Amino acid sequence: MTKITVVGAGFVGATTVQRIAEKELGDVVMTDIIEGMPQGKALDLMESAPIVGFDVNVVGTNDYKDMQDSDVVVITAGIARKPGMSRDDLVKTNLNIVGKVSENIKEYAPDSIVIVVTNPLDIMTHVALKKTGFHPGRVIGMSGVLDSVRFATFVAMELGCSARDVDAMVLGGHGDLMVPLPRHTTVSGIPITELMDEAAIDRLVQRTINGGAEIVELLKTGSAFYAPSAAITLMVESIVRDLKRILPAAAYMYGQYGHEDIYLGVPVKLGRMGVEAVIELDLTEPEQEMLAQSAEALKEAISTLDL
Ligand code: APR
């Protein structure tokens, strides 16, 4: 049986565990530092199984050892963004948390594929890479799927069409540095550049870039979790079922798109081995420049950390 560990049993972690269990992607271990909380959530979830009808086991724990031999580990541990707080304000606190979690993954789940969700995403994924010492293809950041589905949702709302027919593509960093690609965003194969004017596209692009903050402003006490957990589950599914889906995700660049030693959101092929290929798109000059700005800002942020 496939074993999936979700570290951090807060809003994102617990909702992810629920989605993974309901899809029967594997047995799930949910771990958190708060005593009793992951155990309680796991038991509550198991008690829904007779109605919902899933046959996987869900266990809650405060002991990292229980992630032993996991195939996939999802890191959602950390503090969430509060209103007015930028993702970068989170760096120091979450750096220590993700560092510690990564050391435990190295010890207990040395063959796992790691999906990092904790913000600031691109930096935390870099931290997890350095602290696990894993091959870069096995440490991936969840950003692009979420940013793309947000863009797709706004396109569908604008056109009054089914969101299922929209395929959006967003590259770059997670947050202000993302690079939405309208010409690679399609509705049943039709680029949105043929379906709406530039002003409308710009408005949707801006809303996508601000997507996480828009939810934070509304919730006031936390950040998004329904769409993030759906995005994580899609990535977990592609890995454990070896679907080899082409999805945007934060992947380690070693020369692709002209960048090195940096995590950037790009389309990847996701399978049992993790990132099995990075798809290199032909970018226009402005797109290349935006991506370079993204990389530059991340390099600078990472250079200040002691990794
Ligand atoms: N090990 C395990 N769990 C931890 C640790 C740790 N070292 N440190 C903190 N946690 C737990 C907290 O106890 C909390 O239950 O991580 C959980 C985080 O949950 P929430 O505060 O509900 O945050 P959530 O909304 O789930 O977001 C988690 O995902 O999208 C990102 O920006 C978001 O970085 C944030 C992360």
Report on this model:
Helix 4 runs parallel beside helix 5. The protein has ten helices and 14 strands. It folds into two domains: 139 residues, Rossmann fold; 160 residues, Lactate dehydrogenase/glycoside hydrolase, family 4, C-terminal (L-2-Hydroxyisocaproate Dehydrogenase, Chain A, domain 2), CATH 3.90.110.10. The protein is α/β, with parallel strands linked by helices and 307 residues long. Helix content is 41%, strand content 21%. The protein binds adenosine-5-diphosphoribose (APR).
Topology of this protein?
Blueprint: E1 3-7, H1 11-22, E2 27-31, H2 37-46, H3 49-52, E3 58-61, E4 72-75, H4 91-108, E5 113-116, H5 121-132, E6 139-141, H6 144-159, E7 166-167, E8 170-172, E9 178-180, E10 186-187, E11 190-191, H7 198-209, H8 211-219, H9 226-240, E12 245-254, E13 260-271, E14 274-278, H10 285-303
Parallel strand pairs: 1-2, 1-4, 2-3, 4-5, 5-6
Antiparallel strand pairs: 7-10, 8-9, 10-11, 12-13, 13-14
Helix pairs in contact: 1-9, 4-5, 6-7, 6-9
This protein binds adenosine-5-diphosphoribose.
